[in-house]
Design a protein that fits this description.
Blueprint: E1 2-4, H1 15-19, E2 25-27, E3 32-34, E4 54-56, H2 67-73, H3 84-87, H4 95-98
Antiparallel strand pairs: 1-4, 2-3
Bound molecules: FE3-S4 cluster (F3S) (2 copies).
Length: 105
């Protein structure tokens, strides 16, 4: 699967959303997350992100390794909704994101 890492936090450019053929990129309050069971590894989202937040999980930089599990764990209890547009935004971010200090604060 591909994962979204810290540079997305508080930016949420959303260029990635237009590229995903299976609509598996879900919006949280402060960042977006890729559903690991719904992503088909097409890779279309990765080059369009202006903050270079998207990585194939095995290429995730060490400093952001926690975002691998975070992209999966944020869907705990939701299962595989089968599409971000139909499901709507996630009510909460992963705790890892909550701990990222907001820019300018
Ligand atoms: Fe975030 Fe980049 Fe998508 S900033 S919303 S991962 S285009
Ligand atoms: Fe979608 Fe990106 Fe996966 S475009 S299918 S989330 S690699």
């Amino acid at each position: 699967t591909y994962v979204i890492a810290q540079p997305c936090v508080d930016v949420k450019d959303k260029a990635c959303l237009d590229e995903c053929p299976v609509d598996c990129i879900y919006e949280g309050p402060r960042m977006l997350y890729i559903h690991p069971d719904e992503c088909v590894d097409c890779g279309a989202c990765e080059p369009v992100c202006p903050t270079e937040s998207i990585f194939y999980e095995e290429d995730l930089p060490e400093e952001w390794s926690v975002f691998g599990p975070a992209n999966a764990d944020v869907f705990e209890g939701l299962g595989a909704p089968g599409g971000a547009a139909a499901h709507g935004p996630l009510a909460q971010d992963h705790p890892v994101v909550d701990s990222v200090t907001a820019v300018g604060s």
